[in-house]
Structures are given as structure tokens and as C-alpha cells.
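Quiz preparation item.
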């Protein structure tokens, strides 16, 4: 799928996302897909994993918090997530929290993906990677492919809460480096390079986040493990309240179940500065792929 399609789909998703409020959307998701959408919905001592509330793991010892090579430690605690001034998918700003976790400092590279592919755990990327440096981020992989790589590496994809906590810390900053407007020294976005592919990972240290992650703004979008239910007019509670009943069972055959949609974060080398804000989020179908979409992994302390 071409990157231009990513841009068009992102615009459509952003425009259509206003059909349900955040609270209505979460209610629908819990009713139809599981117990929770955010950690804060699970109560004290519990977190949301795979749409179910589970007991939070115990806090590890200090020695266990030394991150593995190539990863950084994101400490447990509360932070402000979202924005009251952003697009509809970013609102409202809420108090969220995470447990301790480790996150890859850099986006997963072509070289790392190739090692997984040779081991038989990862498929061929869905578009040609020839000519890309080994240290460039792998792209053209869908959400399921990204999950498979993280499992191979004994890690997992981050939830969007974890992704945003790593990118903005606890001071509700607008960009990983703070409040200053994006520059090509800090991030790779539209106009910084010729638009034929992302830069090598970690090439812009001044754009580091509060815990040391690189490229969480620009370069390539990143998959998360957080899914959202796409708006469906037949189940929109506002339409039902207004007397628009769902179609009768004797009517047309029911629609085929829609595949999951997942949150992507971070913006890419093709996007304008506003897409680099840490609260910016878009929805994509699980099987979507693009030359401007990659990922990074996280791991739980043991």
C-alpha cells in the first residue's frame, strides 16, 4: 500500500472520529470488545492488558530496573495523556499512569528485522527494502508482523499509554524535547530530507525524549498494541437515543466483522510539524502497511 494512501486514510479517520465522543467510544469498546481501554479504568492496583483488567505486577527491585542494552527505563507513575486543544482523537486530556517498563531507544531496524526473518519468525516486508541502510527503520510491516518481531525479541509492542509516557514524561510537554517548535536538527519531518524514505535511526540526538528515546517525533509512524473500535452509525448511541433503531434481524445480512483498528503514534518524514506532537494519534486497520510506518518494542522488568 502506498504512503499516499496512508495520508488519505489518516485524513478520513481524523475527520470521521468526531462521530462519537471519547466517553461514548470507550463505552462501546468495553461493551463489545472487553473490559477496559485505559489503565485508569481498572482501579487501584490494576492495569489494562489486551482489553482486560489484570493485577499490576509488583514493583521490581532496583537491580531489576537496569535496562537491557539498547533500551531505556520508563519509571512507574502518573502523567497527563492527550490534549484538550488537539484534534478529536486527542481529546480530552486525562490523568493516566503506567507501571515500570523498558522501551527500545530506537525504532526497530532493517538489520534487526532481517535477523528475525532468517530465523523464520518474521515475514518478508510487504514492500522492497533494497537500498535502505541496515540501520534505517524497518517499514512496510503491518501490526501483526510488528507484534511477531517483538515476541521473537522476547518483548511486546507498547500500549499507547506507554508510548506517550515515554515521549512526554510527566510535564505534559508538546514534543519529546519540550515546547520548542520542530527543527530538522531535532526531527525528520516534511521538508527535512528528500521524500524517498526515512533517515537512519537515532540520527538526531537533540530530539531525544525525557528518558532518552530517539525518533518518537518524525522519521516513521509507530504501531502500538492499543486497539480502538471504528465508528459505526448503526451502533452510535446518539442515533439510537434519537430513535434510529438498528436494522431488523430479518433485513439485509449482517456485515462481516471488521478487523481491529490500532493506534499509531509519532508522525513521519512525510508529515507536517503538527503531526509530531506527542498527543497526536491516528487509527489504522491491522493489516495496513506503508513506507512511512514502523515500530519499536517494550519489555517488562523481571
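Solution:
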Amino acid at each position: 500500500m502506498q504512503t499516499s494512501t496512508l495520508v488519505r486514510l489518516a485524513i478520513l479517520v481524523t475527520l470521521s472520529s468526531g462521530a462519537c465522543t471519547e466517553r461514548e467510544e470507550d463505552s462501546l469498546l468495553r461493551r463489545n470488545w472487553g473490559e477496559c481501554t485505559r489503565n485508569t479504568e481498572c482501579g487501584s492496583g490494576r492495569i489494562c492488558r489486551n482489553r482486560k483488567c489484570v493485577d499490576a505486577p509488583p514493583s521490581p527491585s532496583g537491580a531489576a530496573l537496569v535496562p537491557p542494552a539498547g533500551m531505556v527505563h520508563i519509571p512507574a507513575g502518573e502523567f497527563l495523556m492527550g490534549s484538550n486543544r488537539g484534534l478529536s482523537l486527542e481529546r480530552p486530556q486525562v490523568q493516566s499512569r503506567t507501571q515500570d517498563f523498558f522501551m527500545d531507544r530506537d525504532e526497530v531496524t532493517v538489520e534487526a528485522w532481517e535477523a528475525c526473518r532468517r530465523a523464520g519468525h518474521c515475514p518478508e516486508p510487504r514492500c522492497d527494502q533494497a537500498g535502505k541502510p541496515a540501520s534505517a527503520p524497518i517499514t512496510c510491516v503491518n501490526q501483526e508482523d510488528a507484534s511477531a518481531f517483538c515476541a521473537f525479541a522476547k518483548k511486546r509492542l507498547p500500549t499507547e499509554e506507554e508510548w506517550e509516557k515515554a515521549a512526554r514524561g510527566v510535564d505534559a510537554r508538546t514534543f519529546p524535547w519540550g515546547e520548542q517548535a520542530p527543527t530538522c536538527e531535532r526531527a525528520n519531518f516534511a521538508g527535512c530530507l528528500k521524500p524517498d524514505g526515512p533517515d537512519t535511526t537515532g540520527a538526531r540526538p537533540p530530539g531525544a525524549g525525557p528518558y532518552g528515546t530517539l525518533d518518537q517525533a518524525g522519521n516513521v509512524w509507530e504501531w502500538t498494541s492499543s486497539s480502538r473500535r471504528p465508528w459505526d452509525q448503526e451502533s452510535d448511541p446518539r442515533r439510537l437515543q434519537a430513535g434510529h433503531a438498528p436494522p431488523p434481524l430479518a433485513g439485509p445480512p449482517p456485515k462481516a466483522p471488521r478487523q481491529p483498528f490500532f493506534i499509531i503514534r509519532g508522525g513521519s518524514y512525510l508529515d507536517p510539524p503538527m503531526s509530531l506532537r506527542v498527543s497526536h494519534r491516528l487509527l489504522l486497520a491491522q493489516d495496513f502497511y506503508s513506507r512511512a510506518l514502523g515500530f519499536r518494542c517494550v519489555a517488562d522488568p523481571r
